[in-house]
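Technical annex B. To support the medicinal chemistry partners, we prepared a structural model of the target in complex with protoporphyrin IX containing FE, based solely on the information shown next.
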Amino acid sequence: MQGSRLYEGQKLALKYFFVAVVLFGAQLLFGLLAAIQFLYPDFLFGVLDFSINRIVHINALVVWLLYAMIGAVYWLLPDEAGIEVVGVKLANLAFYILTAAVAVVVLVYLFIQVGPGKESTIWFITEGREYIEAPRWADIGIVAVVLVFLYNVYATVMKGKHTGILVVLMADLIALAGLYLAGMFYTDNIAIDQFWWWWVVHLWVEATWEVYVAAVGGYILIKTLNANRKVVEMWLWIEVAMMFGSGILGLGHHYFWIGTPEYWWEIGALFSALEPVPLVGLFVHVLYDWGKERGKGNTIKNVPAFAWLTVETFGNFLGAGVWGFMHTLPQINLYTHGTQWPAAHGHLAFFGAYVAIMISAIYLGIQGKAGLKELKMTKAGWWAITLITVGVLLMTVALTISAYVQTMVERGMYGATWEGFFVAQADVWFTQGMGWRLFSGLMVIAGYGFLVYDLLTCDKKQPAEVYEEEAAAATA
Amino acid sequence: MDKKPSVWSSNRFWRRSATWVTGVSAVLLIFLTMDSMSQMTMGTAKDIENKVAKRIPSPVVINYKIDYQLNRKRGHEVPIIGGMDANGNSKYEEKEKFFGRDDYSEKEASELIHKGKLTIQAKNCMDCHTLLGNGAYYAPDLTKAWLDPTWNTLAAAYGGKEYAIAAFLQNPPAMAMHERKMPNLGITKDEAKAVVAYLKFMAAIDTNGFPRNFGKIKGAVDARK
Amino acid sequence: MEFYMQDIPHEDFLPIFVISAAVIMFGMMYAGFFTIVKLRLVKRYFMVFAYLSWLALVASIYYLGELLRVEPYTQKVLIGAMFGYLVFPHMVYFILEKVHTRYEHSN
Ligand code: HEM
Ligand code: HEM
Ligand SMILES: [Fe+2]
């Protein structure tokens, strides 16, 4: 009976969230296997090699975040537009097709692993390009599903209310989807290959996904804090200007060393150095809204969602802003490029910028599903957020220490040779860092256990006053 | 109650600003991309004949000796193809046998490069190694692997370093040098030759001096200034 | 010759990373202190910390420039950026206030 208050689009969102959380688990599991192999190279050697574990780890990451992102849009779309999602039947069909395709791709990664050096491998087994290894047939399937998704969004907004958040999302999603096409071709020229590959990777995580987060973050602020919509929406446009203004040309920080002209040094340095500014802005905005609403004595409507949003503002700032800036200037990137530095940065940035906010959105879904006006933090919820956040921070610090040693020894002292690589990998400071990474990975996995438990049970474990209020509202 | 609202608080103003900023950035990026593409297209055998430097040279560079030397004018190392002249530029003259030949036609060389690149993708090399510095960090960077001093020590035993690398690729655990081994990826003899050709070709790509001080052994690096 | 890219001795790596982190942290502290003072969450004189953070930021950028051996063109860009950043929170706050006074009382 409770579920019937939800729009069909929101029920679909819950399905997307469900798969997202499952894939998040797969991501962590395979990350753990890869981390073990750093310390014990014979572990699963020849069965599930490092490359395979890593592919599943990072592909699961990207795919679950996309699932959660699509889910969050289906969640807020009918709410914002004020009408049911247009074409929701088709959307459901697309969900099942996508999920079946993802399952096939993962099984092929795990059981077929590699193919002969022919075009057919690129089409059916793996493209062998980091993050977008998915074979070409799957690319085409993904594009088809995304077209359905875009149709849902556009048709619904046309028919319903055009809020500022929706307008930003509409523009952003089309760019996000379009960019995927830049990664869908083959060339013998590895420099051009990587040039376009970065269009997908960088222009996703440092432009279109960031804007997505700003928009969905605005929605979460409205839902959890009752923040003023006009302020949120105007601030959103300013964020868009700053993020695209710095992020689009900030792409240049990947064009220092891949066969590209030298002018990217200056362009990449200048614009990527500006990229932290909107992240400071985002942080200030959340602080500002929180301060304003607190001043008015308003309570937080969904404590876990707001707590995870807070983790996102700090994490985004630290992971993308601080850890990004540490190696973005070409003078230093010359030595850090291709070491554990990007790994240290990648972990905190992906976690801070995207994982945290998607968990926040999932908590909104849980609250809506249970039909509660307020959602408080449970004990398990606190354990989840603490273990996961502290775990990822610790992992980042551990990787940073290893990265520093690697830069010093392999790049600074040994001129980037094969020998230098292995001398650095054997350095005791380096291996200790890897050990702490493994430990912190276990922490994150424990936190994930709490998270799953909490998502399944938190609506039943609320303090008594939440249900009393609910009952009072029902009888009134 | 009072004066007309300031433009700073107008939603419309900021929406327009965002649109303009995004549009201008995107247009700039497209122009820069077009320029970069024109500078990054693969060179031809003609370019090599005419000694025209290309950032990404023709696949026929596999017929030539490749080196990586400091260029005073540019302030960093650059690939040197077929010997270096007095100004630190490539001479495109000195040849080097590659699997017994130094006369691969443009078509033959391109076919090798094509198969090499496909194999590199099909075997997921980038999920352990970095190429041009991008990829995974479990195994060494391959950008200049062709020039790595390790191969010089093995070359003699195999009759040339291309043979040593090809042998390694076909059964890496058999030639493992460290506890962390490369797995056997089922690379065939033909695929191995093509991959080695790709590595040689990649070493000739102008990467603006990445990796810095490549191949300098401990102690020699900071001493250069 | 002034090259854009100088060799960096490896003893300088550590200070470079630490100072780069400091640049962004001081940048955030400046914006953060500025905001909480403006929101009256803390006493007004805390604004001193905001400007002290900005000064620390400038010092860090200067040191970073030295460590990276930047050439004169980049030096000028850095100086410009520091002044831009001094103005930035003032502008943001000014705008936020304007929006609030415009919309807050209308709903
Ligand atoms: C949420 C935003 C961000 C995410 C999720 C993110 C994630 C990543 C990841 C995963 C990589 C490694 C790519 C690979 O596998 O090779 C990377 C590379 C890099 N990121 Fe970010 N990043 C973000 C924002 C930033 C920002 C704001 C900056 C600069 C201030 C930055 C600077 C860099 C640089 C310089 C590299 C290249 C490292 C190299 O290859 O030498 N990132 N980023
Ligand atoms: C159980 C926890 C985790 C463990 C043990 C783990 C382990 C690993 C390992 C071993 C790699 C390969 C790095 C290399 O090539 O050297 C990796 C890469 C990566 N992981 Fe994780 N990870 C964990 C959690 C996460 C989380 C929570 C995220 C995102 C929020 C994440 C995002 C990434 C990314 C983006 C890369 C690619 C980095 C790059 O290429 O620069 N990982 N991880
Ligand atoms: Fe980037």
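Notes passed to the chemistry partners:
Chain B has two domains: 7-40, 45-216.
Chain B has a mean pLDDT of 92.
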